Fold each of these.
Amino acid sequence: MLFLCLGLEASGREPPRVTESTLGSRAAPVSTDAAVRQALRETVRKLERDLSAAERLHGPEHPETARILAESVQALWGLEEYAVARPLAERALSIRLKAFGPQSHEAASSFYQIAELRRATGDYAGALRFHRRALAVWEAILGPQSFEAACALHYLGVVRLAIGDLPGARGYLEKALAARETTLGREHELVATTLSALAEVRAREGDGAVAALLLERAQSIWEKALGPMHPFVARTLTGRARLLLDAGDARGAGRLLDRALDIRTRVFGPDHYLVARSLADIAHLEAGPAGESEALYLRALDIQRRSLGSAHPEVAATLAALARLQWESGKPGPALDNALEAEAIARESFRRSARDLADDEALRFEANRTSGLDVALSILGEAGPDRAPGPPRSHVGSQAVGKIVDQVLRSRALVFGDLANARRKLQPGDRPGLREVFASLPAGSLLIVYVRYERIDRSARQSTPEYLAVVLKSRLETPLPVALGPAARIDALVAAWRDEASRDPRLRQGDTGDHAYRSAGNRLRAALWDPLSPLVAGARRVFILPDGAINLVSLATLPAGDDGFLIEDGPAFHYLAAPADLVDRGSAVRGDGVLVMGGVDFDASPSASARRGTGPRDEAPPCPDIADLRFAPLAGSSAEVDEVESLWPRGTDVLRLTGADADESAFKKHAPSRRILHLATHAYYLPGRCGLTGRSGLALAGANGHGDTGETESGEDGILTAEEIASLDLSGVELAVLSACDTGVGQVMDGEGVVGLRGAFNLAGARTLIASLWPVDDGAARIWMRGFYKKRLSGLATVEAAREAGREILRSERAQGRSTHPYFWGSFVAAGDWR
């Protein structure tokens, strides 16, 4: 049996009507919340008696028992008792799988029930998994246009919307709409349900005109089918009001929201969470005095906490909105408390929900979740009307500063940090905060946390992106915040610096390349480093937790003095993927030996091992843009492989793979068991299409045949995508060295880092990564690698070994009177575990 096909708002939950006992049944409009709940209670008690009788008469594993269990789940859903309903639904599924098999209509109905229960409790990964199973069965036995398949398509779209995957949501919802219009007709109430969800997608995509038309059509259908006072009508009124507010019509939005509040209050009573949602929407209008809006938010919070619980994400959303209002109204104390509580609730809700999501899904979800950090950081970073860089004149004391920074650290790299720890076989537990980071900082070291955030201007009541830095010194209890100014200016300086850093100065006349680089580098140093330099004086080692475009900067390459660089006169820099990289988690299993791959034959045919199908077949379709890529031979990479192999002491297990043997199958087979990986090959980055983790990758043997004859039986094509790398278990890898061009670039996501090869190896569980920030010269790369490995094998930590490798090249170039441009020595950076 199915339920809730008429169900939920795209952004939340709405209970089914009491008489909806079979899929697609019609129901009379509900009268009061009390009447609904009383009828559902009576239904639950009757079903409990029926269940006992069925178990006595037929046995606990009989299909009739499963039917009654499924009806009980539906009634409990209406009472919002999801924790009670879930084990009943799972028991019903177990019975049906044994009695009818996984490809049966009965099993699909249970898949659907479990999916909706998981969605209601925020388990979006589980909801996606079970809805996909239901859809596959129904499409196979009933057809893709069937009533049941349309229900699964609709809620797959709703879950995609909840995690921020707008293209995925639109695709599912458009299919559901077409199926429902074909099967049910254009005026059916289920058509309106999909129209409403699709309208929210189009609104978030910025197409308000189309969203308004969809909502008006949905409202017309519901008013005719269910009456003007049905709660589904309130749903469309709310959506239309948000569109009017975005267009600047606060008065028109207010009229619609007042009507939606009246409907929900009449139907559900004054203490329902949907009433609270309407109250929060009205408060957000800010049309009246701030005190009135604050009172509405507080009333909504009281209802939400009583009806949903204090840890519910809707509570976090209301707290964040209230915090912003309070900050703009000149109440920094209450604003800070509410902002930090909102962040803590939203973060833990995300961690529960996203645990089993695919990497792309989790990253999109993280980018769209509620956060209180913008308000908290706006309070921390306020530095007066001139907004001059430097230590801010904050409204809060040192204890409050510590609380803000603690939440920043705990919320940083939620996806890359938590998923990487899971791959490393580590318990997630509490995320490292301020206390744990302070305790882990080695003597003579400090941590700089760069933060990109939306600074909320209290007077203008609008937000603009800015950067803030926080300095944490070992044995110092209070973090030191420094405002760096508008993100637009800093991002432009980073882009100009990268343009100069990645240009071979030999292609310019005279020393113009060096001069142009120093000019761009000095401007960037003045923005990112000089405001912090008084606070970092004397530090031997500086850990960097970057954010935004700063992820693509190597501070060591910035100019110092007339002709020097920070790598010479400054501390040793090491980049962190997440705060947890500072914490010693030595319980992780380590691999053995070294894998060195290079001198790749990009024109090779699929290897024998690939033809035998030793590797796993990719589930995702290949990226069409990759088919156009062609990779030229790397003449110097064979020599690099020979040299790297020769550096290891006799007796070390070094596996050297070159030519046609350096293929995907070999990497997937051998990399998980190795302690050190060295890959000297081409890398690529394709912005735009192919998914967040499918846009980057490495070229291995046979890569130039991609798209010519299709994949091998193993699904391998010579292209090792970031998505494939992230799916591997590289928890035994202590160090991965990517000796290729641009292996450290990719799509930058605020708060997460670089989505590309850097993120992929981190997600796979590798502890430390050496990657490049721009195209590398073959000869210079070989010299850098030789110096790095020699220093590391001599006993230096990764931080110092990477620094000394660059310094040796720089000293040699200077001694010979040649260009000291960082193009030759500064591209490689180390990120991750610093040891």
Amino acid sequence: MSAILVRARSELRTRRAWLGLALVAALGAGAVMTASVGARRTDSAYGRFDRAQRGADIVIFPEFGPGIVAPPFEQVRRLPQVATAGRMHLLVSEPVLVVFGEAPVGTRIDRLKLLSGRLPRALYEVAVGFTFAERRRVHLGSRIPVRFAPSPDSPDARIRASLRVVGIEASPGEFPPQFEAGVGTDVAHVGPATFSALRGKVLTLKETVVRLRRGAADIPAFVTGLHRLVGGQPELNSIRSQQAANVQRSIHLQAVALWLLGGLLGLVTLGVVSQLLARQAFVEAAEHSTLRALGMTRGQLWALGMVRAGAIGLVAAGAGAALAVFASPLTPIGTARVAELDPGVTVDAWVLILGAAATVTLVVAVSAWPVWRATAAARPALAPGDEVRPSVVARTSAAAGLPPTLSAGVRMALEPGRGRTAVPVRSSLLAVIVAVAALVGTLSFGASLDHLLGTPRLYGWNWDAHVTTNTDTGDADAIVRSIGGDARVGDLAAVDTPPLAIGRTEFDGLFLRQAKGSIHPVVLEGRAPRGPNEVALGTETLRQVHAHVGARVRIRITAIAPKPATFRVVGRAVVRPQSDTARLGSGAVLDYAAESRLVPPGVHPPPISDVELRLAPGVDRARTLADLAKHLGSDYQLTTPRRPADLVNFGRVQNLPLIFGAIVGLLGAATVAQTLITSIRRRRRDLAVLKTLGFSAAQVRGAVAWQATTFAVFAVAVGLPLGVAAGRLAWSGFANHLGAVSEPVTPPLALIVTVPAAILVANLIGAVPAAIAGRMHPAPVLRTE
């Protein structure tokens, strides 16, 4: 044992190759641990934020129009499940909704987290939500001109104000996804001075904000109490746990992206480092014959190699953990970064301990077999017959009549060699192929995500615009009468979107009443519903209720006293989110005739107020929609397709492919560099023979350059199609899980650029080894060899 330790200490002191391997492994391990720390931090950020800011459990909406009933505040506050209740005053205004929270709102419920600035105090000072500030590029000191809707007592009044932004805030319920990326996010909080100045002059609605004693566990009993207070009539509320779950899902997608990044980096790092360790083991085996002559056994040689591997693993683990701590301020990512309560450096002990242990274990494990093989008794370097029969590569290059530098470079790139000149080029090629495939697959996945976000049909917008009323008196029939006769409008359908449930699974419904032409959802499987007894469900909803196309389900409307009815599932559809509690993949599409089966006798739901429209083929879309909006006037709002916010949040991590590509590129570059340097060192005799036969220094450099070029071309030729296939397959699985249409795309420009970029990088890396080879003097080399 003492001989092993003495030799190990000598190697670790005099050789620097092991340190280079340790740093490569540390880079990969640190990146994996950083991604893991970021994923855990991202995934938990909103839950910690909601608890700290005392987010509401349920919000009861005011009476927006006929048919909607709001229970009295005092009666709601006395329900036994209520811990705290407050009122939020909504001062109806454009382009931002002005709100004032009456205590305890803002203190014991829905506390504001100031991201910058302060809370409003003086007249016409506001704190705006962070999503509104991002979208409208609002900053501290900005002025927002606002038009207020007049109160019923003074209908002729026209009140305008210039609101000065003194704070940017975030609070529970204001995180995306939000319905139409507007209501709930485009808010401006005012102080008592502004509210007192405007009270009674502008149209004001009152929401009831409730925090329950047992949180989500009290919601069923509380909702039953609300139905009793309003006598079973329609009332609207938002269950924050559902909205918070939707926010958490969108943030979870960002965390999943980090887990995927960490997993891919781990696989690539393992592949690259294992090949580097195997190569190092065979390089070190050159001295095994001398050590055997001094009396070391094969077991001792193997133990020596494992001590070396353990030292490399320990250094990689320590440096990787330090890198993860140093890089922790870069996380969380996306929306979770806004919710994070404790930004800055974090030490995730579980990740660091497990990551360091895994690093040491894997480095030792992947070294065991190569080291054992390298300890086998080597046959003579120039045994008889070793050089008699040229390799397939040599015969092919000779038959093709390639220039000498090209032929020599190709042979050095693809021939493993024999004896003391052996270089594990195949394992190196495999590592670089894996790196190229991972990079190309990530680029394909990112391009498919961009394609989804840019194609409304893929996430359920199977029409051109949505029209809704801004008044209590407008309805869908008025919209149809106003624009139905326009020849540029090809299809119209009135829609109603009540909240539905199957068992305990709640989701948004989409009831379609055809008014002109035919408008149907995007169907993934089966067909669209045609009668009052049929339904098409979203992918996620089908999964949650354990149903399938052809099954029967019992559906009820949750906003009124329940009257379940049985429907046959005839299709799996893509349903665009209709509210801030909905998400892509959930929902149901039904014919409007089915709604009457779900409404109890004596209950009168509000009239339909929304319409979906599709333009006729060949019309100027932008101009036509602008004309229709102008024709409809201010009483109606025309909305063009808007991307689901959870996908937008996932798109916020679009830089991850670039980060992944950079790290994979570094690992691939390290592999190429190590291969070229090892090749030149192990094949010094071959290069010396080439110089003796007449190769100039420039030709030797050219041969090394062709070696690097061949290496890169071969890796890209194999890795590129594998990466494209892997990226498309991964995207198809992801899109199907989301409930969107799967249309994977391949970025042609990025793939075309990959080929020359790989060749250029390989030649830049090979410049230094080529210069070293070109300056080599053949006589000393041949004497020592």
